[in-house]
Amino acid sequence: MDALFLSRLQFAITPFIHFLFVPVTIGLALMIALMETVYARTGNAEYQRMAKFWGKLFLINFAAGIVTGIVLEFQFGTNWARYSQYVGDIFGSLLAIEATGFFFLESTMIGVWIFGWKRLSPWAHATVMWLVALAACGSAFWILTANAWMQNPVGYQIRNGRAELVDLWAVVLNPTAILSILHTISASIALSAFFVLGISAYHLRANRETAFFGKSFRIALVAGTVFTLAVVAAGDFLGANVAGRQPAKLAAMESHWKTSTRAPMTIVVWPDEENETNLIEFGRIPGALSFLAFKDFDREVIGLADIPRDERPPVAITMVSFRMMVAIGTAMLGLLALSWLRLRQLQQTPLLLTTLIWFIPLPFIACNVGWILTEVGRQPWIVYNVMRTSEGVTEGLRTYQVGFSLISLTVLLTLVTAATAFLIVRHARRGPLPLEGSNEPAKPDSAG
């Protein structure tokens, strides 16, 4: 193991942990804003109570997201200084817009939201949460735009030995960026919907606060259905984009070795990278890969064997990540369909409610393996066809230095994650506080 490998491992672990919290803040902000809007419009205090309950879970995730995310910025200087020097004019500009604009707006509005319950009108308070939701999506927009530039670099020129920005609009309107933004934000909202569905199912199964969690369940079910379908649609377009711009990634996603027309998709496959073939192949569907990639059964798909070995991504990781993402997404659609069918008899369907509870972690896994697919599938490039990952690591960085920071950050972020999970579970199991002015005590958690 050298400094390059450990730096890559460190930058794999830290975003993985950070991205456990980011999608929840994006999706919950939207649903809380909707709840507050209904309260402002109808005066039904139950929706205000819902906003406060789910809002506390939002705040726990937001705080964890800040703690786990702040270390990411420093690694560009400590571990990836040559990358930062080479593309900082572009990448740094996009991150600066995100941090000084949308992150500060989100943080400020969250403070107003926390302390404004009795100081702002219901409509003003709802507007504040809409601004939080807008800022959360805005932050994601600029971060994903920066990442998409690494996948499909546009709007730049090489001057004085470094990449310099010459067309901001080309970067912002990068097709890869637009599709990545639609796919990721939709996935974040869908994930958050299943987060709400699972917690609501927990209380509905225990027959506690059924009216409260029934409303929460319905809001999440609508959001989950709309945005899970949006994930599928955006993912299809993004896959076509990958086929046209990153053929090695597409071939690795399907462990496709031989360039061919009517390229097949194989349901069960396991690659043998050394011998440029597959050890296992089962369930070949002729022409399916050509059609999914190009909407043409007869289109040629480049195989990995026709791509130089030093320009191929790790095939097994890329292929498994893609299949896990698709499998979990398919399961999400199935659970949504069952939930709609049993919506009027939810409490008479304990198996469905139990499944939704245990399903909560899987959308988180789907989002993270999607990121693994995106990043590992781009290798060996840190900026596609411009700069190799090996060229971006800090010059003179020692193995023991990265080893120390890797162990320290992993332990720290694991502790933060464990503490956050404990707080989320405790608050979720406890349930909402009673309505203000009500003499009804909070109900203890007695469900198993």
Report on this structure.
- There is one protein chain.
- This protein has one domain.
- Helix content is 69%, strand content 7%.
- The protein has 14 helices and 6 strands.
- The two termini are 46 Å apart.
- Mean pLDDT is 88; it is low at 438-448.
**What is the 3D shape?**
globular
What percent strand? 5-15%
Helix-strand category: mainly alpha
Could you list the spans in which at least 5 consecutive residues all have pLDDT below 50?
Answer: 438-448
Helix content: 55-70%
Question: Could you give the order of strands across the largest sheet?
Answer: 1-2
Arithmetic mean pLDDT: 88
Largest sheet: 2 strands, antiparallel
Tell me the domain tally.
Answer: 1
How far apart the termini lie comes to: 46 Å
How are helices and strands ordered from N to C?
Answer: HHHHHEEHHHHEEHHHHEEH
Secondary structure: number of strands: 6
Q: How many helical elements?
A: 14
What is Rg?
23 Å
Blueprint of the fold:
Blueprint lengths: L2 H16 L3 H21 L2 H34 L2 H35 L6 H30 L4 E4 L2 E4 L2 H5 L2 H31 L4 H36 L1 H8 L10 E8 L4 E9 L2 H7 L20 H27 L8 H10 L1 H16 L4 E3 L3 E2 L10 H32 L18
Antiparallel strand pairs: 1-2, 3-4, 5-6
